Amino acid sequence: MIEMTNVSKTYPNGVLAVNNINVKINKGEFVYVVGPSGAGKSTFTKMMYREERPTSGKIIINGTDLSTLKESKVPLLRRNIGVVFQDFRLLPKLTVFENVAFALEVIGENPREIKRKVLDILDLVQLKHKARFFPDELSGGEQQRVSIARSIVNNPGVVIADEPTGNLDPDTSWEIMYLFEEINNRGTTIVMATHNKEIVNTMKKRVIAIEAGKIVRDEARGEYGFYEYD
Question: pTM score, two decimals?
């Protein structure tokens, strides 16, 4: 599903964010990406959906070589990649239904299918009853569930989440994680950057630890570890 070969990323200011990374993530895996702040986790995940481009090396996502992918083909790539952010990034003037539907409208899905798919996904995230609400009428946890619904309504092969519980209280964070686990159980590959030690240590998924831009641990049923500056 995802393969990086000799991937490095240096920003224009000279910061080496990712340093010669080699990794393979198989279809259906659930992977936590952990490490101290500034280690390169966000760059690592952003390169998977072409938000950032590597300075060198090769990235293959579901058979597509991102290093040679034309800019015009990036939207097509992202149809099969769902992305969930810490700050939700919902459109404030659109309802819950409209926020989720937007992901289907931009690819030209017909209105009848949009309605069916959106209501099905809102049912999955237990927000069907709030389809007509606006984001500012929802709790943080509800907004994140809308964000997750938007990310999976296209039935993507992989979902990339960057600190999805970072703005949530512990109980709500667990609700979100159980939702991700259910999505993973349906066959979707999950790659999640997180600082949440308790969740990582409890759920026992694959853990990739990054420090100073390098992978220092890759464990099938790993733990978070200790990072002094978290």
Answer: 0.91
